[in-house]
Amino acid sequence: MVSNITSNVLLIRERIARAAEAAGRSPEEICLVAVTKNRTPEEIREALAAGITDIGENRVQEALAKVEAVGRGCRWHMIGTLQTNKVRAALGFADLIHSLDRPELALAIDREARRAGRTVPVLIQVNVSGEATKHGVAPEGLRALVEQASALETLEVQGLMTIAPLAGPDVVRPVFARLRRLAEEVASWQLPRVEMRWLSMGMSGDFELAIAEGANLVRIGTAIFGPRPG
Ligand SMILES: *Cc1c(COP(=O)(O)O)cnc(C)c1O
Q1: 226 CB near ligand 1 (under 6 Å)
Q2: Can you say how many angstroms the Cα of residue 23 is from the centroid of all Cα atoms in its chain?
Q3: CA of 153 to the centre of ligand 1 (A)
Q4: Does the beta carbon of 32 sit less than 6 angstroms from any atom of ligand 1?
């Protein structure tokens, strides 16, 4: 019997491939991050057995417990809001932090990175839609934050991330298009330690639109694991 998780992973890969091809892109350039908040280590193992290579978690404590349970045989992504007092713990598990959104957080990451003697790859989270409930730097504040991060030698800015509103395609697609244009703008500044390699956008309900607009990192939870418990 093929489990739901396994067949869902295959199905999502097919949909990613179709969306990529429709956009004239290669499916191989798109990284699928399986989002495992509120999922058990057993479910994560099943996803890994189905070929998942990247796992996304929102909460540091929960992520640490899961890394402990399933090991480091995959890449771990910190995709949730990060408090400055959790930065040290986050650096302990995350291969990529998607949620740098404010100057104090950049400073806290720099401080902990120096302490650990390493550099830290980050994405800048942008609140493109301007919804009050969403984290992320406003597009107007992006330049100042990128310049600050660029000046911190431990930070490697590797791209941008956004969360689209829960809305129809006519609202969502322009949000993704805007993030892509912002990334082009950032790239044109040619700042040290800033490269726009990743566009992290698209979730279960909207990843095909995101791919149409250039996403190469999609974060998918419920379409792989089913509705979230609780
Ligand atoms: C939960 C979450 C996702 C995945 O959402 P689904 O709709 O379950 O695919 C993606 N990104 C972030 C930041 C999340 O918190």
Answers
A1: no
A2: 21
A3: 30
A4: no
164, HSE (Cβ side, Cα atoms, 13 Å): 31
What does the pLDDT look like over 1-56, one tens digit per residue? 567 999 999 999 999 999 999 999 999 999 999 999 999 999 999 999 999 999 99
Domains of the chain: 4-225 (3.20.20.10)
Q: Tokens 């991050």 belong to which residue?
A: 33
Give pLDDT tens digits for 69-112. Answer: 999 999 999 999 999 999 999 999 999 999 999 999 999 999 99
Q: Which residues, including other chains, have CB under 8 Å from residue 159's CB and lie 6 or more apart?
A: 123, 124, 183, 195, 196, 197, 198, 199, 200, 217
Q: Report the separation in Å between the CA atom of 203 and the middle of ligand 1, taken as the mean of its atom positions.
A: 6
